[in-house]
Amino acid sequence: MVDFLTAVLKWMSNGGSEIAMSPKVHTQAFEIPTAVKGYELIAGKVPFSVVPGNHDYDALWTDPAFPPQPERGKNGVRHVGGLDGFRSAFSEKSQVFKGQPWYVGSHDGGADSAQLFTAGQCRFLHIGLQYHAPDASLAWARSVIGRFPALPTIVSTHDYLGRDGRRNLKSNPRQSRLDPHDNDPGMMWEEFISRHDQIFLVLSGHVGGQAFSVDKNRAGNAVYQMMADYQGRGQTVVDLAAPHTAIGDGWLRLLNFRLDTPRPHIAVRTYSTHYGKFASEIPEYGAWYKARDKQAHLSDEDFLKRDEFTIDLDDFHRRFKSPSALREQ
């Protein structure tokens, strides 16, 4: 009887989350079709990747060993599962990916994927990994690395860095596992990212705000890690004298690779498709967003530096040869 009750409790949904409703009718009927229309605008024009985050799964439930404690602001340990909705739009058979020469691999029905792209005179490998990538996803990613050895590699995943630039971990790392086969950000670093020297950049979101950090991998080389998430922003609604609604305001992160120089670097800028301006072109930028992004302690100048800065890739040519040599691979 105890085992039966434990099994039932383990599959009880977390009522505090919108993804407790499975399947999400509004997601299937509105969000996914709208997302597809957006990506169709760039389909066939540029290489791109879509990775699922926690809100892209079909269901969520809590672990009875670590239940939600709303009175203490704790959500408990949560499981997510099912990607039928995501795969309906972004599987390897999707019209936006099917037949594209730059889409070079997928796993788990497209939940994990790999692409090749060129910036300047340099060819890159990109690997997109699903939320808290399971062991099987990491094994697949290792096989992709094996297919394209020595190419500069970028990894994108949903949840990786917190605002403090540290990998998102629970106080007890073993409790942060959502499933026996899943890997939290620390595990992903230890089991995959730090072990492959050609991975030099990791991109993530999930947490509203921005972060950047650099860690040395097992070969002693730098891995640049960046988080940017603007989903909590809603100044466009405030401009209309309406109650705040988190709609993002059209902000996105742009990376300009400058590798064909003696001092290779990435120029990072943040741009709003709604305002038609970069963050540095809006004097009120800090006043609008730093409190919302939970960084009210920063000056406006320091807050802006989290969205517009330069990453110096001092070891890039040593690690990856010259751009022209990489282009020929």
Secondary-structure map with pairings?
Blueprint: H1 2-10, H2 25-40, E1 59-62, E2 78-81, H3 84-90, E3 103-107, E4 112-119, E5 122-128, H4 135-147, E6 153-156, H5 185-191, E7 199-204, E8 209-216, E9 222-229, H6 235-239, E10 251-258, E11 265-272, E12 277-278, H7 285-289, H8 300-305, E13 309-312, H9 316-320, H10 323-327
Parallel strand pairs: 5-6, 6-7, 7-9
Antiparallel strand pairs: 1-2, 3-4, 4-5, 8-9, 10-11, 11-12, 11-13
Helix pairs in contact: 2-3
General description of the model:
- The chain is globular and about 55 Å long.
- Helices cover 24% and strands 23% of the residues.
- The N and C termini lie far apart (61 Å).
- It has 10 helices and 13 strands.
- Strands 3-4-5-6-7-9-8 form a 7-stranded mixed sheet. Strands 10, 11, 12 and 13 form a 4-stranded antiparallel sheet that branches.
- The chain has a domain at 230-329.
- Mean pLDDT is 85; it is low at 1-22 and 171-177.
- Helix 2 runs parallel beside helix 3.
- The longest helix has 16 residues, at 25-40.
- It is α+β, with helices and mostly antiparallel strands and 329 residues long.
- Strand 3 (103-107) and strand 4 form a beta hairpin.
